[in-house]
Amino acid sequence: MDKHALRQLIVERLAEDFDVLQRAAQTAYETATHEENVAENKYDTLGLEASYLATGQARRMEEIRQAMGLYQQLTLRDYDPARGIQVGALVTLEALDGAVQWLFLGPEAAGLKVPVGERLVTVITPRSPLGQGLVGKFEDDEVAIVVAGIQQTFTVTDVR
Questions:
Q1: Entry pTM
Q2: I need a surface site. Which of 23, 42, 81, 88 has the fewest CB within 10 A?
């Protein structure tokens, strides 16, 4: 799997999300400022709610804009067995039950899922529990995290 192509897919997906949010924020803004939505009493909150929604969407747009910039500037390196897993690594994990997952350790956009062929690659960041556990690990290392009080153990089977 080519990490450069994966990075491009992530940037494209972020751009799509940005466009959707931009249209939604514009609609919320128009609703908030429309003359028919001026509050007539303290219980008439449609304009206020639309204003809050537009503000939240604008913040999310800025987060996505920053994430796109970070991915466009991200220098992708081959896996260095001397340094272990770092940001920009494409990691394959296998759980004790044999379930396999593909992860991209990125600077932002945690939780984003990108289909690559028949695989689904999930973006995680070093700030997540799994991301923290992976940084500095090597192929064949085990990574254990606790989620909702339950310990989960994975083996790093491949790093690129």
A1: 0.89
A2: 42
